[in-house]
Design goal:
The protein is of the alpha/beta class. It is built from 11 helices and 15 strands. Helix 5 packs across helix 6. It starts with a strand and ends with a helix. The protein binds S-adenosylmethionine.
Length: about 400
């Protein structure tokens, strides 16, 4: 089968984890972008990538590259592509686009023009044209157009891979599933030992940790992907890789995953989401203040994602919470590695511990940090000695 470059998009800050995942899946790394990674493979490889990747958003398989200066040239070039070989005439098509061309003020116009070119071509060749619209649950074509350079792709994911399908109850400020998976990978937690998620909200971090602990690919949770709506979709290969992945996805887990929140509603939602993801048996839930979260012996990883006050006046109220997290780490979490995920550097300082690492991420366009604190025995003592000498 012919190999081609495959582009996997992701959020800014995620490429290091996407690269790590590709390496583990034996895919080559061809190129790294700010919000994506390029690998190489055949169309059938997109099935594997959609099934296994935890941190990518979309797996894009290229169809053509060409030059176009305006919408008419775009239409001409797209009309020359044999779309009837890729898309069923009785299907449904959505065209998405990312456009930076001076002749186009609204990228929706580029999507519309592309859709027209594709369906007109199919009508001419097959006598019938697919329906079209904004839903991404069937065939999706993506146009990237910068200056006069165009690249068109089959979006083999369809809906973004961050929609795993388990988060039925999102609550407020939930972390995107792909970001939560990257945060777990960034802590170096490999599914062994304890993973503690106080302030768990809708449970995303704990659920992603549980999926990692079981070695369960996130794509097993979904029944629909863009590649299923492309002609010659290899259904027997898909069934085979899914079955194989299911058998490997029951790794024995040694350790505990604990998720707590002070809000009973949040814990209820997290439990339901974990049940939908099929991992509720792996997570111990509790309603309590973060500082009362039970910490099993043996150490491990604690990740807190407190609110970070995006609205005026909120940040001041959160200062006490961040100060408290520092005390919790110092007084109760010895032997663990503590992490705080926040988009507010001022509040992060209130933790009053020196982070060993500050790992950059982006959440809904806001630059965030995952701050790592090593909480070895004696942290508290050292700090006391220092402050008493000042
Ligand atoms: C930003 S949300 C966490 C979102 C979560 N990562 C997710 O994916 O849904 C912060 C959570 O902290 C909880 N929280 C705030 N103060 C707390 C406290 N003192 N003790 C425990 N939970 C607290 C809130 O109820 C909320 O669910």
């Amino acid at each position: 089968m012919q190999k081609s470059k495959i582009l996997i998009t992701c959020a800014k800050g995620i490429p290091p984890y996407l690269k790590q995942e590709l390496h583990a899946l034996n895919f080559p790394l061809c190129f790294e972008l700010v919000a994506g990674v390029e690998t190489e493979g055949a169309f059938d490889d997109t099935l594997l990538l959609n099934l296994f990747l935890r941190t990518g958003h979309r797996v894009l398989f290229p169809v053509a590259e060409f030059k176009a200066n305006n919408a008419d040239e775009l239409y001409q070039e797209l009309s020359a592509i044999a779309w009837e070989e890729y898309l069923p005439e009785d299907g449904y098509l959505c065209v998405t686009s990312s456009v930076d061309n001076t002749s186009i003020r609204d990228s929706r116009y580029a999507s519309l023009k592309s859709k027209d070119a594709i369906v007109d071509r199919i009508k001419e060749k097959c006598g019938k044209r697919p329906d079209s619209g904004p839903e991404r649950d069937r065939s999706v074509v993506h146009l990237y157009w910068k200056d006069d350079h165009c690249a068109v792709y089959l979006d083999t994911s369809g809906e973004t891979l961050s929609r795993r399908g388990y988060r039925k109850i999102p609550l407020t400020a939930p972390m995107q599933e792909t970001l939560a998976a990257a945060v777990v990978l960034a802590t170096g937690w490999k599914g062994e030992g304890n993973f503690i998620s106080p302030m768990c909200g809708s449970g995303t971090l704990a659920i992603e940790a549980a999926l990692i602990a079981l070695n369960r690919p996130p794509g097993l949770l979904r029944s629909n992907f863009g590649f299923m709506h492309i002609r010659n979709f290899n259904e027997s290969l898909w069934n085979e890789v899914r079955e194989k992945a299911k058998k490997q996805a029951e790794k024995a887990f040694v350790g505990k995953i604990i998720a707590t929140d002070m809000s009973p509603g949040a814990v209820e939602a997290a439990k339901k989401n974990a049940a939908t993801a099929g991992v509720e048996h792996l997570i111990e839930f509790g309603v309590c203040d973060y500082a009362d979260t039970p910490l099993p012996d043996g150490g491990g990883v604690i990740v807190l994602n407190p609110a970070y006050g995006e609205r005026m006046g909120e940040a001041a109220k959160l200062e006490e919470t961040y100060k408290g997290i520092g005390d919790f780490f110092k007084q109760k979490c010895r032997g663990y590695t503590g992490y705080v995920f926040t988009g507010n550097p001022g509040l992060a300082k209130k933790v009053s511990l020196k982070p060993k690492q500050s790992i950059p991420f982006f959440n809904s366009g806001i630059e965030c940090r995952l701050l790592e604190y090593e909480l070895y025995e004696g942290t508290r003592k050292k700090k006391k000695t220092k402050s008493s000498g000042e």
